[in-house]
From TrEMBL:
GO terms for biological process: response to antibiotic. It is found in: Cell membrane. It comes from Nocardiopsis gilva YIM 90087. This is ABC transporter ATP-binding protein. The lineage of its organism: Bacteria, Bacillati, Actinomycetota, Actinomycetes, Streptosporangiales. GO terms for molecular function: ATP binding; ATP hydrolysis activity. CDD domains: ABC_DR_subfamily_A. Its main location: membrane. Pfam families: ABC_tran.
Length: 325
């Protein structure tokens, strides 16, 4: 028996002139959460739908629980749960009835009402799918994906557009699946979601894997110093004061990755300083920055030294923000 839940090698998929997946390889272990992280259009949905057996590949090899997703579809069906981005539920089906129907296809389903309650859907159990809000539709699709107690679930953008409470409920459910030994392969373009949930992150850009590893592997132990200040600082002068091999990035908008939730002055920008050496950002380094700021009449707001985030890794590898498309 193959130890991996999913093995993809040299996968290629084009639509006419568009190459959506351009020689992509990764492995997702069993009993762990693997996140395919990348911006819109990176090829995540194409990849996951090929793994689900819903799309054919142009070339490459895909194994799911050691089986071929198309040729062995019948054997995989009871073992694999699928949540499609498009929902995949008939529009007229009532939420509770649909879930009971899906449950009836499985030998040992989770009781439908338990899932409806867990996902905040009990009050809309008799509502037709098309009348549910987008978030409710998504949660119903998630419930249908996990109701058969699968060994592996594929979740395509499970929390896109959800309100914070529904997002938390979804995250909790994914955490419980993992604790129960279920393998989870999900796509997301939220780096905080990947950081929070995933044992393993596969960063995809333009149909290729640009980085792959545990969150710790990817963010390593390297630290960075960040602060907010007015735009237009003389960064060359600041760089000259810092040890060689330091770098300064200037970012104008960090609202989604700034977890403080607080805004800065309208004209403030974020300065992110990194150095090549892993342990170079110590007390002296910080003092050099603040001394330079004092000498130049700059108040560095929200100054902090922290580990790199996945967002930083993506930016570093691709030169682009995860939110840019
Ligand atoms: N059925 C299709 N026909 C033509 N082009 C397609 C089709 N499906 C996807 N594409 C294109 O392939 C590329 C990759 O799309 P894909 O949906 O796989 O990426 P993604 O990373 O999942 O993006 P998103 O987060 O927006 O779903 C995009 O340029 C997309 O426009």
């Amino acid at each position: 028996m193959s130890t991996a839940a999913v093995e993809v090698s040299d996968l290629v998929k084009s639509y006419g002139d568009t190459t959506a997946v351009a020689g992509l390889s990764f492995t997702a272990p069993r009993g762990a959460v693997t996140a395919l992280l990348g911006p819109n259009g990176a090829g995540k949905t194409s990849t996951i739908e090929i793994c689900e057996g819903f799309r054919s590949a142009d070339s490459g090899r895909v194994r799911v629980l050691g089986l071929d997703p198309v040729a062995d579809a019948a054997a995989l069906k009871p073992k694999v749960g699928v949540m499609l981005q498009s929902g995949g539920v008939p529009t007229g089906a009532r939420a509770g009835e649909w879930l009971r129907l899906v449950a009836s296809f499985h030998a040992r389903p989770v009781p439908p009402d338990t899932l409806l309650e867990r996902l905040g859907l009990l009050s809309v159990a008799t509502t037709p799918f098309r009348r549910l809000s987008g978030g409710q539709q998504q949660r119903l699709s998630l419930a249908a994906a996990v109701i058969g107690r699968p060994e592996l679930v594929f979740l395509d953008e499970p929390t896109a557009g959800l309100d914070p409470q529904a997002r938390m409920a979804t995250w909790d459910l994914i955490g419980e699946l993992r604790a129960a030994g279920v393998g989870v392969v999900l796509t997301t373009h939220y780096m905080d979601e990947a950081e929070r949930l995933a044992d393993r992150v596969v960063i995809i850009d333009h149909g290729r894997v640009v980085a792959d590893g545990t969150t710790d592997d990817l963010t390593d132990t390297r630290q960075e110093l960040r602060f907010a200040a007015k735009g237009g600082l003389d960064t060359d002068s600041l760089l000259a004061a810092l040890p060689p091999a330091s770098r300064i990035e200037v970012r104008s908008d960090e609202t989604s990755s700034d977890r403080s939730g607080r805004g800065h002055e309208d004209d403030a920008v974020r300065y992110v300083i990194t150095t090549a050496a892993a342990d170079d950002i110590g007390p002296e380094f910080v003092a050099t920055v603040t001394t330079w700021c004092a000498a130049n009449g700059v108040l560095p707001q929200d100054l902090r030294v922290q580990r790199r985030t996945l967002e930083d890794v993506f930016l570093h590898l691709t030169g682009r923000d995860l939110r840019e498309t």
